Amino acid sequence: MSPLSNRVKEEDLVAGDHVYSWRDFFFYAHHGIYVGDGVVINFTAPPGKLTASIDDHFASGSIPGVSSLSSTRGGKTCPNPRCGKKPGGGVVVSCLNCFQDKGSLYCYKYGVSKIAFQCHIRGGTCTTAKSDPASVVIHRANYLFEKGGFGNYNLIKNNCEDFALYCKTGLLTIDDKGRSGQIADLARVKMLPKKMKAKFFSNTEESGKKCRRKHGVGRYAADIGVRRDVRKVPVEDLHNFRRLENDLQDNDNSTQDDENDLQDDDNSTQDDENDLQDDENDLQDDDENDL
Question: How many whole angstroms separate alpha carbon 125 and alpha carbon 229?
Fold first, then answer.
């Protein structure tokens, strides 16, 4: 793997590596953890059961990664006996060929410097966060494959990159926000005005280079390695953490409902006061007319 590219050869992979392969003309990448023996443990959405889609949030196109649910490619059964196995949840095992889906293989970089992070034009390719030892990474991936607990797939908040990032670092956000660098990247590009988008994708204009540099600075703030809303969660405690997270979300929703009810009561009280004031004004007008 060269310093200017994350592309890697299969023979250079080491168990515990976070690998990814681009889909849909480099629009989106599918991520997973290489655990050795030519297989990758990855997190996918069952076909037709996405809780959020690219179509809803970013652009039209097929949903990447779904092909990894199957052990067949081009109508032929994959010879790897582990490929396509899915005991529960959305965590599956895929052979490298099925994982790549005819694309190239890349290795996610960890512990990069701030400058190196900002120099990467695309999000979802590196992080300033440091990786845990390979044995710990593989244990997390295998544990989640065998026992589940990573939750339901959500393209925006809980996707394949989120899964790989957790396996590598053990970090989770304490709120309901995802950790995916590529989703943060796409979201920031989406929010750009049309003129800025044209400059962003320009390779010739100097303003385009400045726009991408500014974009990199903003993307850095969303990196899991610098965010303050993350905590280390042991994989054995992940299920309880998710349940606590859901309970907190329910409490927040309940509190918001109570606040809305109080606001409605305040509005109703204000309406009653306005009605009383109108009645007093009417009585005052009647008295003046009688005089």
Answer: 21
Tokens linked to 236: 């054995």
Tokens 């339901």, residue?
Answer: 152
pLDDT in tens, 39-54: 999 998 876 555 554 4
Q: Which residue has the higher pLDDT, 138 or 270?
A: 138
What totals of helices (H) and strands (E) does the chain contain, helices first?
A: 9, 9
Task: Using CB atoms within 10 Å of the CB of residue 267, give its burial: 0 to 12 exposed, 13 to 18 middle, 19+ buried.
Answer: exposed
Exposed, middle or buried: residue 241 (CB in 10 Å: 0-12, 13-18, 19+)?
middle
CA dihedral 186, 166, 157, 61 (to 10 degrees): 50
d(C-alpha 18, C-alpha 40), whole Å: 9
* pTM recorded for the entire structure: 0.72
Q: Are 21 and 6 in contact (CB under 8 A)?
A: no
Closest listed residue to residue 17, CA positions, set 121, 124, 117, 110: 110
| Residue 106 contacts residue 9 (beta carbons within 8 Å) | no
- Report DSSP letters for 232-285, one per residue: E--GGGHHHHHHHHHHHHHHHHHHHHHHHHHHHHHHHHHHHHHHHHHHHHHHHH
Please report the pLDDT score of residue 244 as a whole number.
Answer: 63
**What is the rounded average pLDDT of the residues 14-41?**
91
> For residues 126 and 6, is the Cβ–Cβ distance under 8 A?
yes
Distance CA 104, CA 10 (A): 10
Decide: 28 and 20 in contact? Cβ < 8 Å: no
